[in-house]
Automatic annotation (TrEMBL):
Top EC class of this enzyme: isomerase
PANTHER family per UniProt: FOLDASE PROTEIN PRSA (PTHR47245:SF1), PEPTIDYLPROLYL ISOMERASE (PTHR47245)
GO MF term set: isomerase activity
Catalytic function, reaction form: [protein]-peptidylproline (omega=180) = [protein]-peptidylproline (omega=0)
Coiled coil: none
EC number: 5.2.1.8
Native species: Staphylococcus felis
Keywords from the named record: Isomerase, Rotamase, Signal
Top-level taxon: Bacteria
Protein's UniProt name: peptidylprolyl isomerase
Sequence ranges assigned to domain PpiC in this UniProt record: 140-245
Length: 319
């Protein structure tokens, strides 16, 4: 893989974005004609105005970033491993036809989806370089946990859970059993817990700070490994929490670091924008259109704009 410092010209004309696959005669300047007619000609400039600088900037930056990330981190990504993961997803969603339908709904082909997966891995490599998190920080901000949940009904029509009084009584009875014999936790979780984690004896795996509701998290991070909490009340109902021993910490460490990085990005999006800026400097990126350059700087390399876009995205997802 050639890793030399390259000078890359950001493809900022509409022809580069829209007509890159149309052959060697594709127009390369804004005043060149795409289509002619008796009623008038359509020039690259007209198409750019129609699409808008922000959209062209976004698409151009995406193409450029993928090129840079692939050049810089391509030999660090295991494509065969990604293919195996995608094969597992295909089986999970009911086979190739069903999966292709889901991709089509998102405007993607299988090859494009795999390329997206690779890009995600490239970005992880970038952020791992830019964000330094020690093993101690990971341990201080994560906890392996299991719990038993007795749900409280949201209202009278809620078919799941119990009344507050009944749920409290049941969790208190369970706590008495566990005080006498803590080794029964897994069995009781499997038989009595009203959470999907019951299928795994109540195990939640590793919990990262900021992931759970405050009363649950506060109680969990006070516990020593192997210790059980008192009864904890949350909006979901009543819990008994166990801090599990992190025997597989080294195996899970890289995944936990990724989650902590994501948490940091939510609080400090400048981590990502600064990482992008460093890449652009490293690869001597040369903008050929001042309007598009401004659009990229204002909307993509601006931490506040990035935070706003992320917030809007969460709102659209109902989060």
């Amino acid at each position: 893989m050639n890793k030399g410092i390259k000078k890359i010209i950001l493809p900022l004309t509409a022809s580069a974005v829209l007509l890159g696959a149309c052959g060697n005669n594709t127009p390369t300047s804004e005043d060149e004609t795409l289509i002619s007619s008796k009623a008038g000609n359509v020039k690259v400039e007209d198409v750019m105005k129609e699409i808008g600088n922000e959209q062209i900037a976004s698409n151009s930056f995406k193409v450029l970033l993928n090129k840079i990330l692939q050049d810089k981190y391509g030999d660090k990504i295991d494509s065969k491993s990604i293919d195996k993961e995608v094969d597992s997803e295909v089986k999970k969603y009911g086979g190739k036809d069903q999966f292709d339908t889901l991709l089509k709904q998102q405007g993607l082909t299988m090859d494009e989806y795999k390329e997206q997966r690779k890009t995600i891995e490239y970005q992880k490599e970038l952020l791992n370089e830019k964000v330094d998190i020690s093993d101690k920080e990971i341990k201080d901000n994560t906890k392996k946990a299991s719990h038993i949940l007795i749900k409280v009904k949201e209202d009278k029509n809620d078919k799941e859970g119990l009344s507050d009084k009944e749920a409290k009584k049941k969790i208190e009875d369970i706590k008495k059993q566990l005080d006498k014999d803590p080794s029964q936790f897994d069995k009781i979780a499997k038989n009595e817990s009203m959470d999907s984690s019951k299928d795994n004896n109540g195990s939640l795996g590793y919990v990262v700070k900021g992931q759970m509701v405050e009363p649950f998290e506060k109680a969990l991070f006070k516990l020593k490994d192997g210790q059980l909490s008192d009864v904890v009340k949350t909006d979901y109902g009543y819990h008994i929490i166990r801090a599990d021993k992190p025997t597989d910490f080294n195996k899970k460490k890289s995944q936990l670091k990724e989650k902590l990085i994501q948490n940091q990005l939510q609080e400090k999006p400048e981590i990502l924008t600064n990482a992008y800026k460093d890449l652009l400097d490293e690869y001597n990126v040369d903008y050929k259109n001042s309007d598009i350059k401004k659009a990229i700087e204002d909307n993509i390399l601006n931490p506040e704009a990035l935070k706003k876009q992320a917030s809007q995205g969460q709102s659209n997802l109902g989060m």
